[in-house]
Design goal:
Layout lengths: L29 E3 L3 E3 L3 E9 L6 E9 L10 E9 L4 E9 L7 E10 L7 E10 L2
Length: 133
C-alpha cells in the first residue's frame, strides 16, 4: 500500500510530517516618543511594526507595556492590525495619560509585535523623562 499523506498544512508522508516554513518575520519595533513631557499631560507613543518576511501576516498584535505607577490606566495596551503585507511597515499611535509626579522621573516602555504563525516576538525598550509639573 502507498504511504499515507500528512494532514494539511503539513507536507510529506506519515509518520514523517513536516510543518510549513514560517515566511513572515518582524524587524525590531521602533518606539518614537517625546524626550521630555510634563507630568499630568497626554503622551503620544508611536510604535512602528515592520514585516520583513516574504508573506503577508494577519492579525498582527502591537503591544506597549508601561509602568503603572506613572501612567494611568492599564499597564499593557495592545492594538491589532488586520494585516501587514510582506516588506511593509505600519505605525500604531497610542495616547497615554501620565500621572502627576513630585520629582523628575525617567520611565521606560517595552513594545512587542506578534502574529499567529510567526515564531518570534521582538522587543524594544524606549524611554521618556517625566518632568515635575
Amino acid at each position: 500500500t502507498p504511504p499515507e499523506q500528512c494532514d494539511p498544512p503539513q507536507t510529506g508522508t506519515k509518520p514523517y510530517c513536516v510543518d510549513p516554513p514560517v515566511l513572515g518575520s518582524f524587524k525590531t519595533p521602533v518606539i518614537k516618543v517625546q524626550k521630555k513631557i510634563t507630568s499630568g499631560t497626554i503622551l503620544k507613543v508611536r510604535i512602528r511594526a515592520t514585516n520583513d518576511g516574504k508573506s503577508n501576516l494577519e492579525k498582527v498584535k502591537v503591544c506597549l507595556k508601561t509602568p503603572k505607577r506613572y501612567i494611568k490606566g492599564s499597564p499593557t495596551r495592545c492594538r491589532t492590525l488586520p494585516n501587514l503585507g510582506a516588506g511593509s511597515t505600519k505605525t500604531v499611535t497610542l495616547r497615554l495619560k501620565t500621572k502627576k509626579v513630585n520629582k523628575r522621573k525617567k520611565i521606560r516602555f517595552k513594545a512587542t509585535v506578534s502574529a499567529a504563525g510567526v515564531a518570534k516576538q521582538k522587543n524594544y525598550v524606549g524611554h521618556v523623562t517625566l518632568m515635575k509639573q
